[in-house]
Amino acid sequence: MNPPRIVVGITGATGSIIGVRLLEVMREAAVETHLIMSKWGARTMIHETSRTVEEVNALATNTYNPNDQGAAVSSGSFLTDGMVIAPCSMRTLAAIATGQGEHLVHRAADVTLKERRRLVLVVRESPLNEIHLENMLKLARMGVVILPPMPGFYNHPKSIDEMVDHIVMRILDQFGIHMDLTSRWDGKMAIN
Question: 38 to each of 52, 101, 156, 167, how far by Cα in Å?
């Protein structure tokens, strides 16, 4: 049985650590990853983390230039189990919702949609305006998973890393990759 093959996009919204951590965990789980980091995704990642683009690229099985519209992931005949964009900027959300394939992240998402594969968007913006909400609703109606990076607090996270792990665990669940990076809800409530 082949390992899962997932396209990962990192765009220019804040929260690039989620995409980086996702790549780390997918590597540990032997997932074949195909990374596309947009120009602003790289810029934001450098600003928000201590990682370099080269270090993050090294976490992926394959990487692609965001301007390479002829890359393998731009074709539906290149078989994948789906795509996740983490974080997903509102610009990227809008491009996907309107079919505007300006660069490879957009094109790969469009291919994922047309091939009816799993597409997970870790949308990052707050507060949300009506355009953001309409774009999310439009895509959700097409079967896209809209997964804002909202941490759970029932597991009493002690650090940002633990909150990020909770979000990454929830993203992986969407692809049937179940890793207990943090405790899951067990239905037991604390009693005073």
Answer: 14, 13, 34, 21
Q: Are 107 and 72 contacting, i.e. CB atoms less than 8 angstroms apart?
A: no
Classify domain 5-173 at the CATH superfamily level: Flavin prenyltransferase-like (3.40.50.1950)
Instruction: Give me the mean pLDDT over the 183-188 stretch.
Output: 84
3-state secondary structure of 10: strand
Q: What percent of the chain has pLDDT over 70?
A: 99
Query: Where do the domains of the chain lie?
Result: 5-173
Q: Which of 174, 188, 181, 178 is nearest to 157 (CA)?
A: 181
Residue 81 contacts residue 4 (beta carbons within 8 Å): yes
pTM (2 d.p.): 0.96
Token pair recorded at residue 133 = 């909400």
